[in-house]
Amino acid sequence: MSTIGNGPVLIAYDGSDDARHAIETAGELFAGRKAIVLHVWSPVALIASRYGAMVALPASSDQQIEDAALTISAEGVAIASEAGLDARPESAECTDWGTWHAILDAADEYEASVIVIGARGLSSFKSFVLGSVSHGVAQHAHRAVLVVPHLVRSDRAPAAAQHATVPR
């Protein structure tokens, strides 16, 4: 039986429900392990180069954006700690190569044994147009990657409950 190594578990976290689900899954699988909860942020110049005049750029500085990224990462650490991981927050700056590249660079820097990332459940078309971070990580990683499937929540009652009769 092979192991994933002794390095930390690197968990990509963006504050979404899918990322939260990925952390919870990592806690179930890697309880007690050291973990790094990583949030990737984009500098103002990169946002401007990608979107130009199409969006109003924030009046904030890169330092403010990085600080906000660490706040989001710390939120993920709280979830990870509750899930049984020994986690710490980190952030990484996105480059022209994209978010997936920043995640892989961080995995190399921290010598992660495994990368955990949630999948958004985008349609094939949306994934093609918008890009898929989880796909990029899985395709280019040189270490184990766990892509946690999109969490499907149903607000509907189970079929048995829908057909139950109410006593009179």
Task: Summarize the topology.
Layout: E1 9-12, H1 17-30, E2 34-41, H2 44-51, H3 62-82, E3 86-93, H4 99-109, E4 114-118, H5 124-130, H6 133-140, E5 144-148, H7 159-162
Parallel strand pairs: 1-2, 1-4, 2-3, 4-5
Q: What proportion of the residues is helical, as a percent range?
A: 40-55%
Q: Would you tell me which CATH topology applies? A: Rossmann fold
Which of globular, elongated, flat, extended, rod-shaped describes the shape?
Answer: globular
Write down the overall mean pLDDT: 80
For the sheet with most strands, the description reads:
5 strands, parallel
- The secondary-structure element order is EHEHHEHEHHEH
Through-space gap between termini: 59 Å
In CATH terms, the superfamily is HUPs
What is the percentage of strand-forming residues?
15-25%
Question: How large is the radius of gyration?
Answer: 19 Å
Derived from helix and strand composition plus strand pairing, the structural class reads alpha/beta
Unreliable runs, pLDDT <50, ≥5 residues?
A: 125-130, 156-168
CATH architecture: 3-Layer(aba) Sandwich
Specify the CATH class: Alpha Beta
Count of discrete domains: 1
Strand order of the largest sheet: 3-2-1-4-5
So how many helices? 7
Number of strands: 5
